[in-house]
Design goal:
By secondary structure, this protein is α+β, with helices and mostly antiparallel strands. The chain has a single domain, classed as outer membrane lipoprotein receptor (LolB), chain A. It is 24% helix and 31% strand. The strands form two sheets. Strands 9-10-11-12-13-3-4-5-6-7-8-14 form a twelve-stranded mixed beta sheet. It is elongated, with a radius of gyration of 19 Å.
Length: 286
Amino acid sequence: MARTYQALAAAVCAVAVLGAAGCSSDSGSDKPAKDKDKGSSGSSADAGSGSGGDSGGGAEDSAQKKPNGVEKLSAKAIVDKAVAATEAAPTLRLVMPDVIDLTMDRKGNCAGTVAISADAPQELLRKNNEVWVKPKDEAAYYAGEEGKALLKVVPGAKGKYMHGSANKSLSLRLLSGYCEFSNFGKSVKSDSAKLVGKTTVDGHDTVSVKVKSDKDVITLHIATEGEPYILKASDPKDGKTPEMLLSDFGKPFTPPATPPAAQTYDAAKAEEAMWGSAGSGLGGSS
């Protein structure tokens, strides 16, 4: 399982956008994955997002299309308003194509998928500090090196969720860190903001602003209709453009049911057993 922790560490360190950790993704699409795989985030049996369908209509649709005038403000003011609006949203969906697809709310609930490595997407459910994680494709995972290593120390892991507190388990803490959307603006330095033009994201008109985030310069695409939400953040690097797409603001979200205890195993104990057997600890090689 040492390789799993390497993948987790790499995922967290790869790119930090708006204070939320994430991995690189080379996708050119402005459209969230909901149209490509709508059903993948709605299951109650697994750790799907449970995100409802469109909740809008009538007056709400009109409000969403009403110009908000944010593009007339200074670049700093645009970023400040966008961060405030995004952090205040009651629910939202975060997608980094092929890496993350999570729906979350401000009550500490979060569900969906996180790919800690390209061949090991994990279904994730978080309720406050309690987290449940399970390989999306168990057959493939347990046929691989990481899965086989896990079964040596947790023979009954197949068919079960790794479960525990995000405060006591490194892997659960790192994976569920993607759910902290109240901290999106933490690392954004709005004083550095510069307007770079206008575009559209998933059919919505936006104003684009470059801003420093930690050591990177990212581009935020902010809605100019309805609430000035951040709809996309991109971070061009090495000829690639990792993207974080935000959508479904305020839409109903019912997290999946908590898996019963009989379908779980202890994350902290599994980690302790793995580190001891691998003898390499965090970031070690298998």
